[in-house]
Amino acid sequence: MIALPAEPPAPIHVPGGSWWPLITALGLPIMAIGALSQLIPVVLAGAAVVIVGIYRWAYEPFEM
């Protein structure tokens, strides 16, 4: 049996919540619906939502 330390070594930082992963995920079904219905403008709109969501998610300020 492994002995556990009496106290954790350091506090664990968990980043705050963000809406950008959800917005990015919502762009994928928009693209799929556009592709299945063969509507290129809908596919491009979904791709724009995905690209903007990924960009904003990646450059979101990191706070400690």
Which properties best describe this structure?
64 residues, mainly alpha, 2 helices, elongated
List the helices and strands and how they pair.
Elements: H1 20-36, H2 40-58
Describe the structure in your own words.
The protein has 64 residues and is mainly alpha-helical. Helix content is 56%, strand content 0%. The chain contains 2 helices and no strands. The chain has helices at 20-36, 40-58. The longest helix has 19 residues, at 40-58. The protein is elongated and about 60 Å long.
Query: Rounded to an integer, what's the Rg over CA atoms?
Result: 20 Å
Portion of residues in helices? 55-70%
What's the helix count? 2
SS class: mainly alpha
SSE order? HH
> How many angstroms does the end-to-end distance come to?
35 Å
Please provide a brief summary of the model:
This protein has helices spanning 20-36, 40-58.
